[in-house]
Amino acid sequence: MGENKQRMLAGEWYLPSDDELRADTVRRAELCAAYNASETAPPDERRKILEQLLGELGENVNIRPPFRCDYGTYITIGAGTFVNFGAVFLDAAPITIGRDVQIGPNVQLLTPTHELDTERRRAGWEKAVPITIGDNVWLGGGVIVCPGATIGAKTVVGAGAVVTKDLPEGVLAVGNPARVVRDL
């Protein structure tokens, strides 16, 4: 593994345009294209594609195409999880999704962040921070989870919310930025 990729996985500033990461992107693009074209294929064929694409995949996971990700290999999805149409999981850092999670349409899990300094941003520097989604979480349609956020088990995040910081277990959170409105 090259130094740049090591920096990426360590949560340090890295350049996503290096040859090693580009090769990983080509692999991902081919597997995402195959998966997104497989909507009418038998479930076992579709699962085989996901097993090649993702780092870990629990039993009875259902991901409706289209599905997009950065690398795939840094995504773990627990058993019984459902991911609706249009999901975007940018996994430059690990994305860990628990068991029995419900993810609405057009949800985005975004681990990368970019430089605020104009020159470094223009040069392409970015870093990534892991996202963790606990068991039995429900993310409504269009939810965006920002880098570094953890969502506790049994929490519900309302449609269109933007999660910018950790949410505790067993709450309802809504809005931009997402805020807890009550316990569940």
Description of the structure:
Helix 2 (19-36) runs antiparallel to helix 3 (43-53). Strand 18 (171-174) and strand 19 (179-183) form a beta hairpin. The chain has a single domain (3-183), classed as Hexapeptide repeat proteins (UDP N-Acetylglucosamine Acyltransferase, domain 1, 3 Solenoid). The protein has 4 helices and 19 strands. The protein starts with a helix and ends with a strand. The chain has helices at residues 3-9, 19-36, 43-53, 118-123, and strands spanning 56-57, 62-63, 67-69, 75-77, 82-83, 87-90, 95-97, 102-103, 108-110, 112-114, 126-128, 131-133, 138-139, 144-145, 150-151, 156-157, 162-163, 171-174, 179-183. With 184 residues, the protein is an alpha/beta fold.
Look at the structure and give the CATH class: Mainly Beta
**Averaged pLDDT:** 96
Determine the strand fraction and express it as a percent band.
25-35%
Low-confidence stretches: none
Q: How does the helix and strand content classify structurally?
A: alpha/beta
